[in-house]
Amino acid sequence: MEINLEKQEVPMYASLPTENITQDEKTESTEPDTTPVPEKTESCGCQTPPRRPRCCWVTVGFIAAFAAIIALFILFFTQKGGNAKENKALNALMQNGETPYILTVNNDSIVAQFVLVDILTKDLEEETTRYQKELQSKQSALEEKYSNYQINVQNQVLTKTQMQNAEKQLTQEAAALKTLQEKYATILAGKQASVQKEIADSIINVTTRINEKKYHAKYVMATSTGSALIYTSPEYDITEEVIAELNRTYGKSHGN
Fold first, then answer.
1. Alpha-carbon torsion 25, 29, 33, 34, what sign?
2. Which pTM does this prediction carry?
3. Can you name the residues that pair with 222 across neighbouring β-strands?
4. Tens digit of each residue's pLDDT (9 = 90 or more) over 5-23
5. Structural domain spans, the chain
6. Span 174-197, pLDDT tens digits
7. What is the DSSP secondary-structure string of 203-220?
8. Is 76 helix (H, G, I), strand (E, B) or coil?
C-alpha cells in the first residue's frame, strides 16, 4: 500500500481563519490566498482576525489514515483460514514412491498462526499510536495559540506589528505540523511494506526449504480467500507443516 503525499507550500494568511467571511469565501481553493490584509478599523486600528490554520485540521485526516492503514493491516493478517490437519495422505503417497507435481499452502491459515505476524503487527500499532499522540499534542498547542491570538485581537490589545508577527508565527507552526504529518505517514507506509515483505519472505523461504528437502514438487501454489484456484486436493496441502516450521524457525532464532 502506498501513501502518496504531495508537499505544498503554505502561504502566509492562507492557513489562518477570518472572522467575518461570506459563505463563498469559506470554499477552500488550491490557489494561494491573495485577499489583501484588512485595513484598520476606525475604533481601534486592529485587523480582522485571519482565517483559521487549515494545517491544524489536517492532523485529523492523517490520524484517520493511520487508523485505516492499521485496521486493514490487522484484518489481512489475522483472518482465520481453514483447519488443515496433518497431511498423512501425502506422507503415504511419498512412502509409496510417488512424487507430487503440485503442492499447495493456504496463506490465510499461515498468517493467522505465524507468531511473527502478531509481533510485527503490534509493533506497527505501537508506532502509529505514538505518532498519533505527538501530532494531537502539537495540534492542540497550535489551536490554543490561535485561540489566544484571536482573543487578543478581539480585545484590541495588539498593535499592527504584533498582529503581523503573531500571524507569521502561526503560519510557520502550521506548515511545520503539516510537514511532520507527511513525514510520519511516509515512515508508517514504509514500515508496513517492510513488515509485509519480511513475512512473505519467511513463508517463501520455509516453504521452498520443505519442498526441496522432502517433496520435490514442481510447483507450490498459494491459496487464500478470493484466490484464482477454485479447488485443490487436500492430500497435496502442506500448510500445517509450513506453519509448524515457520514457528519453530522463528523460535529457534530468538532463543525460544
1. negative
2. 0.60
3. 105
4. 343 343 333 333 434 333 4
5. 47-253
6. 999 999 999 999 999 999 999 999
7. HHHHHHHHIIIII--SEE
8. helix
